[in-house]
Amino acid sequence: MVHILxxxxxxxxxxxxxxxxxxxxxxxFEYSVGVLPITVAALATTPWIERHHTPDAHVDRIILxxxxxxxxxxxRQSWGxxxxxxxxxxxxxxxxxxxxxxxxxADYGMYDIDILAExxxxxxxxxxxxxxxxxxxxxxxxxLIDLGCDPGTRWSEVGDTVKALRDEGLxxxxxxxxxxxAAAAAKAGAELILSVNHxxxxxxADWGCEVVAIPDTPAQCEGLAExxxxxxxxxxxxxxxxxxxxxxxxxxxxxxxxxxxxxxxPDLALMMGVGNLTELTDADSAGINVLLLGFCExxxxxxxLTTEVINWAQSSIRELDLARRLVHHACKQRVLPKKxxxxxxxxxxxxxxxxxxxxxxxxxxxxxxxxxxxxAERGKLHVINRDMYLQGTDPFELFAEMLKRTDxxxxxxxxxxxxxxxxxxxxxLGKNYTQDQALRWGFLTVPERNHHVE
Length: 454
Hints:
Elements: E1 3-8, H1 13-27, E2 30-35, H2 46-52, E3 61-64, H3 73-79, E4 83-86, H4 94-99, E5 114-119, H5 127-140, E6 144-148, H6 158-167, E7 171-175, H7 179-188, E8 192-196, E9 210-213, H8 224-233, E10 238-240, H9 251-264, E11 270-273, H10 275-278, H11 285-299, E12 301-306, H12 316-333, H13 357-366, E13 373-377, E14 380-385, E15 388-392, H14 395-405, H15 410-429
Parallel strand pairs: 1-2, 1-3, 3-4, 5-6, 5-12, 6-7, 7-8, 8-9, 9-10, 11-12
Antiparallel strand pairs: 13-14, 14-15
Helix pairs in contact: 2-3, 6-7, 11-12
């Protein structure tokens, strides 16, 4: 049976031993625990570990604390024959670490839905601003940059703007009913024009590019069949958008129109403007985008148009890019879109972990220095050092009690205030809090530099 050496710090040793006593028989390994001469193992580096520990020869595998810093090469060169790796960042995740949770298939990440990112009111933007926004949209996952024009005014620079984007290697579409703007954009390299109906379809045959056919009146889908037939007869390439309506203005019926259109035209390319929901609903956009792309994937809608105007939809392109991969994999493999894409779980964490009262009490009994250990679980903030173990829900009250029991210099007070604010945020939203680590915000997580030195 394989023998695994787990390296840890002094404070985590009891909890680690309890967990391994239960885990090892289930996972099928023997183990030993190496306690490093440091209170918190996350503060250790691999060169420091190499100097302070020598593994026994009977060990087959060594697992380091997940948060320790440094290159494992240092240890491999010094210790030689052992298989060495970092474990999970939190020892409470060891069961899953050894349980080999199911991973997405090797082809996870494939997709078949294109994202059109609209730059609203493009004629009002400077050329540099358009290029900067387009580059960012492309980096976030957009396949086409859609230039949104202003109705009632003609954009004289549309052709030059399209050419500038094409010179950057970007694919471009134009959102305009003006035949002159459409012709100029197509000539400069735009590959798609949004949109055509009975008002401008007569000019579409002259543009030499694909167009989006929409109804004359979305609510009844009037005129769509006539526009489709008109474009077919003139060999104009097109895709169809029955138009998604906002909630309270025909949302359910508009979804029905997509179903009806697909049933009537099983081979036509369809498109959906998802921004009509994300921009016009008081809700974070990520969940809405995932739901709409699931509908699109099942129905064979292969392009979506989004915007990032309202503040709560500022990351819609990145959300759609993640969502299209998730729903494609789910539909292709016939599996639930669950436990596959944690980056889309932003507000709360996928799973809450707890140390438990027994572990924290035990930790408080063994801490021998004045540095504070902070925890947030079971609805309370927990503060531990050699002089105290405090619990509460109000960081101001906790800090006042801390000041009664020990002196805290201004720099450390600032640090504690910052960490307590993070901990309270974690409690409020249902997140895991780990001292000196960034809160997890899915794909929006920004790694945190540890400025605190104990």
